[in-house]
Amino acid sequence: MHHRLLSFLSDLEYAIVADDPQPGCDGTWGATRIVNYHLGLARLSLQVRPATGTAQPRGVVTVQSYALADGTPCLKATLGWTGQEGVRTLPVFTKPGLDWTSEARKIASTWLAGPPESATILEVGSTADSETEAPRLAAVS
């Protein structure tokens, strides 16, 4: 599997700390990393440790290593936030000249921006009369 799992998690953690050095009120970031090279999975659990009190979980970034049909190694990062149902998945495709640190910074900034907004359902109605009632369409944005 992919040998960049742990180094990618480290780059991701460093980017989060660099972009938000004091989360909350004078807190510090705490992180736990778990890597399983056999399965190609890694997990970064993030929490904030306030100056007084216990650590408060903030979210998780799970990274999966996989290979495309042509054998090119790739990563998939799934971002999750504590107390939120929404997750976001971002792929990182290996290509010539790829800067892994830059990709980790992009994912870190996406995670720091917070969870995606919940889907909004917009209904498009018909002005047809009741005898020939057209089906309603729904669009999700």
Strand order of the largest sheet: 1-2-3-4-5
Q: Residue ranges: pLDDT <50 for 5 or more in a row?
A: 119-123, 125-135, 137-141
Strand residue content: 35-45%
How many beta-strand elements?
7
Q: Characterize the biggest β-sheet.
A: 5 strands, antiparallel
Radius of gyration over alpha carbons?
20 Å
Q: Given the structure, what is the number of helices? A: 2
- Supply the helix-strand structural class: alpha+beta
Residues in helix, %: 10-25%
Number of domains in the coordinates?
1
Helix and strand sequence:
HEEEEEHEE
Spatial separation of the terminal alpha carbons: 36 Å
Overall mean pLDDT score?
81
The coarse overall form would be: elongated
Q: How would you portray this structure in words?
A:
The chain has 141 residues and is α+β, with helices and mostly antiparallel strands. It has one domain (5-116). It is built from two helices and seven strands; from the N terminus they run H-E-E-E-E-E-H-E-E. The chain has helices at residues 5-19, 100-113, and strands at residues 28-36, 41-49, 56-67, 73-81, 87-93, 121-124, 137-140. A five-stranded antiparallel beta sheet has the order 1-2-3-4-5, with helices on one face. A hairpin with a 4-residue loop joins strand 1 (28-36) and strand 2. Helix 1 packs across helix 2 (100-113). It is elongated, with a radius of gyration of 20 Å.
In short:
By secondary structure, this protein is an alpha+beta fold. 21% of the residues lie in helices and 38% in strands.
